[in-house]
Amino acid sequence: MPVPEQGGGTLIPEGLNKPGHIYTVSRGKSGMMGVFKLETQISSGSGKFERTGLGSNSQAKEAMDTAFKYLRANGNSISASISTATKDFVVNVQDLNGIGMTNRLTLATLIALCSAALNKPAVSSVVVLGDLSIGGTLIKVEELANTLQVCLDSGAKKILLPLSSAADLGTAPAELIGGFNLIFYNSAEDAVFKALGVE
């Protein structure tokens, strides 16, 4: 078994991850594209949310806070069994390519929190693309072809993509798109359900 952090194509391992473990690909602080892994821990508590691994990146912290606020406000529309008031959450973000932290973390954090809260892992080898604004609007993927290339090089098999990015698929070579199972979502809740394989 190769160590996930070594060599191309093994950053995103095959098979199911643990609940609360989510991969996303976006531009890091250096301007380069890379893979970010989110890991979530959940414990009994009083609704505290802690984010680690971000260093001093205030935009990344804000993005993750937005996800937790969204979950507090809309958790019931995802599942009645999600309680943000009786649990404490810790989400750690790893910059797997060493390109500097991304601030495109809201949607991936929301999915990671829901995955942990429901104790349900994401579907295997999936990467979450796209993001969520502070107002709850979906943000499409910037530079889709480059992003998909990084996903492919990192071992992703499934791509969770906002419907608004469908029009940009023409910018990517067909053989690149053919390397994935594309899963489209049209709302944050829809993204959570599809990431976790819930119909």
Characterise the protein shown here:
This protein has 199 residues and is an alpha/beta fold. The protein has a single domain, classed as Ribosomal Protein S5, domain 2. Helices cover 28% and strands 24% of the residues. The strands form two sheets. It has a seven-stranded mixed beta sheet. A two-stranded antiparallel ribbon has the order 6-7. The longest helix is centred in the middle third of the chain and has 21 residues, at 58-78. It is globular and about 50 Å long. 40% of the residues are buried. Mean pLDDT is 93; it is low at 1-9.
Task: Give the class-level CATH name.
Answer: Alpha Beta
Fraction of helical residues: 25-40%
Low-confidence runs (pLDDT<50, min 5 residues)? 1-9
Q: Give the tally of structural domains.
A: 1
SSE pattern: EEEHEHEEEHEHEH
CATH architecture heading = 2-Layer Sandwich
Relative strand content: 15-25%
Overall pLDDT metric: 93
- In spatial order, strands of the major sheet run 3-4-2-1-5-8-9
**End-to-end CA span:** 32 Å
Keywords:
7-stranded mixed sheet, single chain, two-stranded antiparallel sheet, 199 residues, globular, alpha/beta, Ribosomal Protein S5, domain 2, disordered N terminus
